[in-house]
Write a structure and sequence with these properties.
By secondary structure, the chain is an alpha+beta fold. 36% of the residues lie in helices and 20% in strands. The protein contains two helices and eight strands. The strands form two sheets. It has a six-stranded antiparallel β-sheet. Strand 2 and strand 3 form a beta hairpin. It starts with a strand and ends with a helix.
């Protein structure tokens, strides 16, 4: 593992393999999951493991990731079963509320991929076994939208929105500066008109005085 990486969740993991392969058959072809298996992108690995999860009867969850300390890009990703880990105990808010169903059972099944210098995403760890029964999950109950809601993608969206906000602030500052310039011009013009009016009034008074004298 590249030492120039940061790990979300701050977890240390042994990049070992459990010695078993998994085969996915879609009726026309079969694909074997193994250490060293390559994907063109992180998204391709997610799609693969999501299809694998659907066929076996569990739900994939996008889990921890590591970023490169050089450029901040994600270079390591862990995909797990949705029953991975255990739910944190929280204080009860109300005695009348129903307790939530147990959805975390400490399942160890996972697929870990990391980005190599070649640009390929390579499987570095694969655990096939689940500690709970597997079953077919209805498509409308699956949380496949999580593929577009990973923490790193949220960070990218936040950065984009922040940059847009900064651009809007600069644009607003430009408008404010232009408005202030217009107001200054109007004030100068008003002052000029006032002086002209004073001069005219003074000239009229002088003329009137001369007429009276004559």
């Amino acid at each position: 593992m590249d030492e120039n990486l940061t790990l979300d969740k701050d977890e240390n993991m042994n990049e070992s393999y459990n010695g078993k392969d998994s085969i996915i058959t879609d009726g026309t072809s079969e694909m074997k999951t193994y250490i060293g298996m390559e994907f063109e992108s992180e998204e391709a690995a997610k799609v693969f493991y999501d299809a694998y999860a659907r066929r076996l009867g569990f739900i994939m969850r996008v889990d921890a990731f590591r970023r490169s300390m050089r450029d901040g890009k994600v270079v390591w990703r862990r995909l797990v079963c949705n029953k991975e880990g255990f739910r944190k105990l929280r204080p009860k808010r109300s005695e009348n509320r129903k307790p939530r169903a147990v959805t975390r059972e400490g399942c160890k099944a996972m697929l870990v991929v990391k980005k190599e210098k070649t640009g390929k995403w390579v499987v570095s760890r694969f655990i096939e076994e689940h500690n709970h029964p597997l079953g077919v999950t209805p498509a409308n109950d699956r949380r496949t939208v999580i593929l577009s809601q990973t923490p790193d993608e949220k960070d990218v969206k936040i950065r984009e929105l922040t940059a847009e906000l900064q651009r809007e602030r600069k644009r607003s500052a430009g408008y404010l500066e232009q408005l202030q310039m217009v107001l200054r011009d109007m004030e100068e013009h008003s002052t000029y008109l006032s002086r002209n009016i004073d001069d005219i009034v003074q000239s009229v008074r002088v003329i009137e005085s001369n007429e009276v004298a004559l």
